[in-house]
Design brief:
heterodimer, A: 139 residues, mainly alpha, 6 helices, 0% strand, globular, B: 191 residues
Chain lengths: 139, 191
């Protein structure tokens, strides 16, 4: 359990930042999709730039021990084509309706939002539905 | 001390928040070669609640191996609680004048806080909208194997082409919903 504490801290910083930056706000997401403010685009762009630089830096340490002990490596995503486009499209439709992606859903549930809790219940049902149907969906 | 207090309570500008969120990618690699992302926890929560003997193969695995991910999600909730309740910002979201003009046409009263009371209140229509929207989020993120954090931030930071496909899909879907679906849905709610 102690070994996993750093993940709790990282998650706390993530949730704190989502709320402090108002990225967890429905209004901010709608504002973004209607191109009415730079705020969310600024967050995404600086996050990706920091991520690129950070990963570039971490590549110098590949093979050395991570905090958990095992040698460090850069995780790779699985392959496919349609699932990324179609899955992304379906997720995007949901995001554009409820104005919350999964990170903010968790952060808002922590804030005690009933609406976010309903969205989480929906998301779990959607996840289960995918699990039941996945063999019929194109990769 | 006053400065710290100010930063804990006031909203953060994009150039502070963006780099912190981006920092999650190398941070998770450094902690344990993990891929930064949160939506896989939806799968783990299904795996936890599914009975061992019956059920869907997709949820038959040892979720305890993913405890680190669940702990990250618990942290996200804790962070939300700290930022939104303990160090709450008393002012409403500082939206652009252009967007305020826009939602005036949607005829939704803007409340305090992060979420329009009409959509996040306990009305039958809003409960159905939030639930069905949530179903799309859950289904789509598992099908695409990632959400905004996993694809837009982690995937693009590690230059994975699949993630670019996913981000294009996500943004297209979001644009369609925010422009053509959501305004109509909000209009259908009768508080």
């Amino acid at each position: 359990m102690m070994r996993l504490l750093p993940y709790l801290f990282a998650g706390t910083l993530f949730g704190f930042t989502l709320v402090k930056s108002e990225a967890a706000s429905w209004y901010r997401i709608m504002e973004m999709f209607h191109f009415k403010s730079f705020h969310m685009y600024g967050i995404m762009m600086t996050a990706i730039i920091t991520g690129v630089l950070g990963v570039h830096l971490m590549k110098k340490f590949i093979g050395r021990a991570s905090l958990e002990g095992a040698p460090m490596e850069i995780p790779v995503k699985e392959q496919g084509r349609y699932k990324f486009i179609l899955g992304g499209l379906i997720f995007g439709l949901g995001w554009g309706i409820i104005g919350l992606c999964p990170g903010p859903i968790f952060a808002l549930v922590g804030m005690g939002s009933i609406g976010a809790l309903i969205a989480l219940a929906g998301a779990l049902h959607g996840t289960w539905l995918y699990g039941a149907l996945r063999n019929y969906l194109p990769d | 001390m006053d400065t710290l207090n100010y930063w804990l309570h006031s909203p953060w500008p994009w150039y502070v928040a963006g780099p912190i969120i981006g920092l999650m990618v190398p941070l998770m690699i450094w902690i344990g070669s993990r891929s930064f992302g949160i939506s896989s926890n939806l799968r783990h929560l299904c795996a936890i609640s599914q009975p061992q003997s019956i059920g869907v193969d997709f949820f038959k695995y040892n979720w305890r191996e993913h405890s680190w991910s669940l702990l990250f999600a618990i942290g996200t909730m804790l962070g939300g609680f700290l930022a939104g309740v303990v160090f709450a910002n008393p002012d409403p979201v500082n939206l652009s004048v252009e967007f305020l003009t826009q939602i005036a046409y949607w005829n939704i009263p803007i409340g305090e806080g992060f979420l329009p009371p009409v959509l996040f209140g306990l009305y039958w229509e809003s409960i159905v909208i939030m639930f069905v929207g949530g179903v799309l989020v859950g289904f789509g993120t598992r099908y695409a194997n990632g959400c905004t954090s996993g694809h837009a931030i982690t995937g693009l930071s590690t230059m994975q082409p699949q993630s670019l496909l996913a981000v294009l899909g996500i943004f297209t879907g979001g644009l369609i919903a925010a422009h053509f679906i959501t305004p109509a849905l909000i209009g259908s709610i009768n508080p």
